[in-house]
Amino acid sequence: MSLGTNIKQLREERGLTQEQVADKIGITFQAVSSWERDEYKPDTEKLIKLAELFDVSVSALVEEKQSVFATKKAIYNWEHMKTYVKTTAKNLGLTNTLKAVTFATEAHMGQKRKKSDIPYIYHPLNLACHALSMNITDDAIIAACLLHDVVEDCGVTYEELPVNDETKELVRLLTHCKTTPENRDEIMREYYSKIASNPKAALVKCIDRCNNITTMSWALSRDRIYRMIKETEMYFPELISVLKEEVEYSNAAWLLKYQIESLLDVYKRLM
Asked: Using CB atoms within 10 A of its CB, is residue 178 exposed (0-12), middle (13-18) or buried (19+)?
């Protein structure tokens, strides 16, 4: 498809009129109309403004699309993952994990992943399966993967968590308070510093970041994607270093470093 066709398709997908697009980027609607008819092409400044308005990359605007690819927001069925985690926990005697599966499923009931119809429980279950696939079978770690968001997002207190003190401490480290643009940097520095003090918390956070990076292309705005990239590059090298120092997590550290950095590189090239 041509540049004009791309602009028209993106505008219509977002429910915008030519007048609304023109008003938002400071031009006339006749200019938008001429772009969509491929009579004229927007200059670089206007291309950037269009990309920001439509929340896509500039390349998504200018490249001719020879085919349309099917995309997935979920790769695995969350109920199958739940069964796998519960079965594995029973076989390995992971008592905290067994309690955490049920508790997390109930706590996140009705919640959805951002900009999707995917049940939120898909995310913590994905973390637990990711850890198990790397042969991480520590009960506190798998349980913390499942519970890492319940205090922050579900109005649950630490005292209500049906797990041992070690798991509660991991959830506490992985939970941060709400931030504002003014205090975010300070809060996040303290947050990641505390996580780095505990290798198990660092492991859960790295797995969490892997999963969040894979979904940010459709779940986050371009500004939030930029912030996620910068934050990841600022704080996660230290967390990976913490994991490398632990013999039992050294293989996981290698894989997580590769996953995080390769995904970030893909985003950077596309943006």
From this structure: exposed
Would 72 be classed as within a structural domain? no
Q: How far apart are CA 183 and CA 176, in angstroms?
A: 12
**Residue 37: closest CA among 62, 10, 4:** 4
> How many whole angstroms from its chain centre is CA 159?
27
HSE, side-chain direction, 13 A CA sphere, residue 238: 14
Cα torsion 24, 30, 33, 34: sign: negative
How far is the first Cα of the chain from the last one, in angstroms, to the nearest whole number?
Answer: 20
Query: Do 84 and 139 lie in a common domain?
Result: yes
Residue 31 domain-assigned (yes or no) = yes
Query: pTM of the predicted model, to two decimals?
Result: 0.80
- Half-sphere CA count of 78, side-chain side, radius 13 A: 20
Report whether 128 contacts 97 (CB < 8 A). yes
For residue 158, the 8-state DSSP code is: G
Q: Per-residue pLDDT tens for 65-94?
A: 555 567 788 899 999 999 999 999 999 999
Shared domain check, 141 and 39: no
User: How far is residue 191 from each of residues 63, 196, 199, measured CA to CA in Å?
Assistant: 41, 9, 14
